[in-house]
Amino acid sequence: MNHYSANSSSRSSQHMDKQFVFTDEELIARFQNGDEQAYVELVNRYRDRLMTFVYRFVNDEVIAEDIVQDTLVKLYTHKDYYRNIAKFSTWIYTIAANLAKTELRKKKSRKVTYLSQMGPEERDYELPAVEPDTDELAQSEYIENKIQAAIQKLPLHFRTVTILRDIQELSYEEISKIVDVPLGTVKSRINRARIQLQKELKDLK
């Protein structure tokens, strides 16, 4: 469906069409030059993606919302720190990841033991980027909680790359830049993390 139809006012339609086709890098450049609407567009593009990313990190919706808000504030206040030598997404995910790691260090002593005593369920193994598709709400919540618990059990350096790859679906190259480790190390960590997740979730058959 075309949201920018001819029914809209001509000027508004032209403005939104132009806004829609800007790349992230073009938007941050416009924002650096004083275009506040470019900031709004970047927030709209990244708020939900960052929320998914950070929630998988910290396992707490309220804390995740706070971290995402802090990330978007940093985007506003530190816009001139961005240089067009890296993708904008790499830069914004790095900010969010650093804030999430800081929060986790504060809560290092707290262990997450989530649904550890529950029995097996008949379910295909998957690591979804969206809510599980099932008509049975209770089973859906159980599976989602099991997946989240398994992610939380991963060492932090495994958890980071797995979320970025299997949930956020970023490239190996971009993940390498975000976590600042060689490409081969990223691939190795993801493979080892997947093996651990499969062991943790083997009862979801």
Outline the structure in words.
The protein is built from nine helices and no strands. It has helices at residues 10-21, 24-32, 36-58, 61-77, 88-106, 137-153, 156-167, 172-179, 183-200. The radius of gyration is 19 Å and the shape is globular. 23% of the residues are buried.
Which SSEs are present, and which pair or pack?
Elements: H1 10-21, H2 24-32, H3 36-58, H4 61-77, H5 88-106, H6 137-153, H7 156-167, H8 172-179, H9 183-200
Gist of the model:
The chain has 205 residues and is an all-alpha fold. 66% of the residues lie in helices and 0% in strands.
pLDDT averaged over residues: 79
Q: Give me the count of strands.
A: 0
Terminal CA distance: 38 Å
- Rg to the nearest angstrom? 19 Å
What shape does the CA trace take?
Answer: globular
Count up the helices.
9
Helix content: 55-70%
Strand percentage: under 5%
Compressed to H and E, one letter per element, the order equals: HHHHHHHHH
Protein structure class: mainly alpha
Low-confidence stretches: 1-19, 109-126, 128-134
What does the largest sheet look like? Answer: none
Q: Which properties best describe this structure?
A:
205 residues, mainly alpha, 0% strand
